[in-house]
Amino acid sequence: MIPYVGCEYAREHLDAFVDGELSVDEQVAVESHLRWCRTCGARVEDLQLIGDSIRLGSLAPRADDEEAQTVSHVHAGVLIRVRAEEELSLAARFREMFTDMRLLWPALGATSAVTVGLALALSVLHSTTLERPESLATMIDSLAEPGGERNPLMPGNSARVDRLFGYVDSDRAGGISMPRALDDGTVFESIPEEDATFAVAAVVSRDGRIANYELLNSERSGRQARNLHANDVEMLDAAVRQSRFAPAQTPVGRAVAVNMVWLIVMTTVQTPEPRAIRVPPSVAPTSRIPPAESIEETPLKRSDRLQTSTTA
Amino acid sequence: MGTLISGGLVKNAGAVAWSEVDTQEAALIARCNTGDQAACADLVAIHQRMVYSLALHLLGDRDEALDLSQEVFLRVFRTLSSFRGQSALRTWIYRIVINQARNRQRWWRRRHRSSQVSLDDHLQQFGDVESKTEVLPDRQLASKEASARIWQALDRLPFDQRTALILREVDGLRYDEIAFSLGVAVGTVKSRLTRARQSLRAELLGLRT
Fold this sequence. Notes:
Chain A has 312 residues and is α+β, with helices and mostly antiparallel strands.
């Protein structure tokens, strides 16, 4: 049975009907409608007339006319262009690049020069930022590591250690132990045995060495004080460099670098001169007792040193 | 697939499948991809007329159409290796033509409108040209004047509507092929064809009065 369809349905499908794009059922339904509806039939005729008019006015050239031949010749040029593009592909250009060596060597030289110049500039930049102590990079680097050689702390109560994270806050109260000398003063024996006092401002590093020091004051007494003072300072310099310390530690056991003032006092301890022992003449000795000689002991000289560390 | 009803071929609209690329065409594409110059020449020979014809209908200028069709074939050979048989090769080439034409049509038509081909001049110079659908002699005589008016009205339509109608009426593409060529849905093709025909029918009605 052919379904009845109205004009509204038919009009929606007239274009597809003319184009042959309807399904079989739709085609049959529209055709049945067109048998009795003259309005829709006229509309279909118009659509077909439009299609015919477009095809009639088509500008497409005939296969055998002159324009078609021209088109054919021009398109043959496309193949030539395609072939030329393949020949000028990247690989072909790469090969061509090495056929003329006059351009290669200047290019390599320029590339090398640019590379060397760039490396030099980077090295200078690197050295100026890290080596110069006043540079911002160095300041940031040292501040990022409290307790390092570049940012030593002050022992005592002026630093605080975070027990949870282990970092040291030098602006707050805390407890950092004093560095303790490991040697027994033998390094100072090379200094002439005269009374002397040296005050040295030093930084004791995390591995127990004197990382940085400055002689603040030196006093000397004795007969050769003036002559030997310059030598003493040199020897002191060597002795300070050889000194070893147990590094200062935070309460959590982390070694840190600290500032300290090192007071080195060298004293000579001399025993008092004993009195002469005289034998009374009333006692007649049976034999001559040689008179007692005054015992004059060689003054016991002992170099000693007193080390005092105070915070700077 | 199609069913013959009342003298008309009713086609089922559906997605274009791999089967659209037949064996002979697939072999031609494979040869072109290997750099076979003879195969490339064959491909150009097969499609050059339809490419030029579509470019001419879309742009309305012979020199421009010739230049565009060269560009199209260059692009075809550059991108043929990426063609995966998602449509017939012809439809795929149509799509390239339309995209290229759309790019230059916007500015070119405004600047070179005066040098476009007049339909009357074309008919005087070449006479009636062949079409793919047979037109009855009496109707053909009756529609010569109408044809000129229709083409003038067609020239004023938006690019997408005009393209859809030309692909349908001149090149005989199915709705799904037009949809692929334009890069839109089949429903969009239907609505564009309907709107285009309404405009042209209004022109036709004006001609009668």
